[in-house]
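Q: What does the assembly look like in three dimensions?
Context provided by user:
Components: two
Sequences:
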Amino acid sequence: MKALTHIGIFLDLSETDEFLLRYFKKLDDVFDFASLTLVHFVALDHHSTEAEMLQKQIHQPLEDLLEKEIQDLVVQVFGEKKSSIHIKIDTGGKLDQLVRWVDQQHFNLIVLGKKEEENGGGAFSSKVIRITDSESLLVPEGSPAEFDKMVLALDFSSYSDRVVQRGINLSSRLSSELKPIYALQAGFQYFPYFRDEEAFQKELKKKILAKFLKLQKKTGLTSELEMLPDAGNAIAKTIIEYTSQVDANLLIVGNKGNSDEDDLLVGTVTDQLINSDLSIPILIVKKGY
Amino acid sequence: MKGKYYDIHGPVFIPSVILVVLFMAVTMIVGDPMLELFTSFKDFVTEKTGWIFILTVNAFIIFCFYLGFSKYGNVRLGGKDARPDFSTSAWFAMLFSAGMGIGLLFYGVAEPVSHYGRPPAAEPFSIDAAQHAMNYTFLHWGIHAWAIYAVVALSLAFFAFNRNMPLTIRSVFYPLLGDRIHGWMGNVIDIFAVLATLFGLATSLGVGVRQVSGGLSHVFGFPNTGLYQVLLIAGITGIATISVVSGVDKGVKILSEWNVRIAAVLMFFVLLVGPTLFIFKSFVQNMGTYVNELIEISTWTEAFINEGWQGDWTVFYWAWWISWSPFVGMFIARISKGRTIREFILGVLLAPSLLTFFWMTTLGGSAIFLDMQQAAATGSHEFAQAIIADETTALFVFLEKFPFHLIGSVLGILLVASFFVTSADSGSLVIDSITSGGKLNTPIPQRVFWATTEGAVAAILLLGGGLTALQTATITTGLPFLVILTLMCYSLLKGVKKEHARDSQLKQEVSQKSYTDRLTKVILKQIDKDKKS
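A: Here is the predicted structure of the complete assembly.
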């Protein structure tokens, strides 16, 4: 897995921008990223006629104005104009083209903010996360920039390897504690057939443990697996409850799970997590296209 | 690897050249026993794996229609805002001329008459045989052939235009192999593509040169020997090489446009001077029979009587089209940007098929009609038998029935030679592009190398075993490529599904009201500043 060196951050002219930059500055202090690209998409729609009219009254292209605005923010946060920070303003109005451009840059991570007032997390951010092929980090506004406890949500699909690798990769620099978890769930298909639930759960746990040992051997992960019992909830909910229970400050999940349906851009559990009121940052590991 | 005279992708270029040279050397050195080996190998492949070809090619058609008529049919090649580069009629014309070329001239008369005289399951020269002769010909040149091209072309176009990947076969496998397409697996795929293209092209060139030689011998009494054919290959390859060296892409373009025009003139000539009414009537009837019996004849595998007929015809054709598919596929991909998948499937499967059917009915159908008339008058099938006896002269024997036949025959010979030149030229461009890792502007000596190699492969195969050698080479490289094509379908489906999911995600509107407010604030701040200063 590639180390984090090239990062893209989506900004949207709101207060979240400053928060995101400050959050990221903390990481930059540790990682010293080779490059940081601040991406801004000028999203106009039918509400925007006034803005378009006003735009004609300024004596410079909108791109320049916005670039300056963001540059000012960079100076405010980082204390200087850093040469490793680039700004990309997209006025083309085509989000898919911007996301394609982003994917072509091969960022190791793209970062998006999630506003408090938008319950269920910024529609724009979750849209970008769905269509991009880049690994994405969704940061809820106000989450503290601490990294001492990371939860790795595993399902032993092909994504789990990457989830663990990314966890190890981050924890080695940030000296965080890794907490790999697996949410147990009795498949509905077993329902009428298994009589002895206890024996079934035991058998299931044994199987999961064997898979985890294999994963540990492959990735060098040393932490123990936590199996979250099936409380009849949706898996996403079980995971969210666990993260607040252990006071985690980052959740790492795979983009999709075992079924890896091509018709879905993001797996159902991950989708629920993105749209939930989860209050800590969530990192979505992707496989590339 | 790059130098003054070359710019190659070594891991594809070098193994490809070694394999080709090895194949040619063995054919030359071993000589006659090689012919026996070719024959038995071809028989083995067609006998044991023919059913796989038959099954898979049918599956391609189902796959194409599934893609075209499902929700994925709306996915546009080049992204949702792309628009076609060519008008629909120009697109149809280019599709038609891309796919068949030499084969149409070689088999246009020969194939229907051959099925009529030597039917696989009917009384020779009977009405039943005549109807089925047209039907088998339609089968071989119809939507099955175009479904093979469509699979390759659509895959190439999709990954090149929608995913911005280089236009090489390996790109198509990205959803399956990921970054491994840049490693040895990708190289193996490209090597197969090179070999398939080279042998498929050599077969066409071999077929073309036999026809030119047969025509010259028939019309002017020139000798028609192996050596003479090789000299002809050398001569025509020489012309192709000159066109490559001079870099007159325009010349080749004009030549290929004229090829289609002259072929059209030839067809209209036969249509008007020949049995016009019969041609129109039989075109309608043949189409009906084709549609009606499509499933039956396209799944027929000689299961109960094995006469080896299918190996020489259906299986050979499927392998031939497969081996041509990287070459034709790349061309079709390039001209199809901006089409939706639905337009693409309907256009590629139906339009050129219909044109080909009309061509076949005009030439082959007329030949059968003329023979039936003659047989009714004299009781002998001399005319058809003369055509069957030597398929290289079939077209010329047929044209003798028409006025100005000398002009017609010379035109026919020139047309084949000209198709040869354009195929060799564009074929070398495709192989060159694959062996250089998807580049298009490689040094000229490299293209000359491939143009001459094609000629050499065709010549050596002709000398070392004639048509059987050509057919064996085609079928042998067609088989592994069939596997590649099948995987290609799966990979394409994965890619298209994701594209569709992205498109529908993008369509969901997000209200930008609060964003607009923030943007307005920034602009107002600037206006304020401007005023103050």
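Follow-up: Chain B has 19 helices and no strands.
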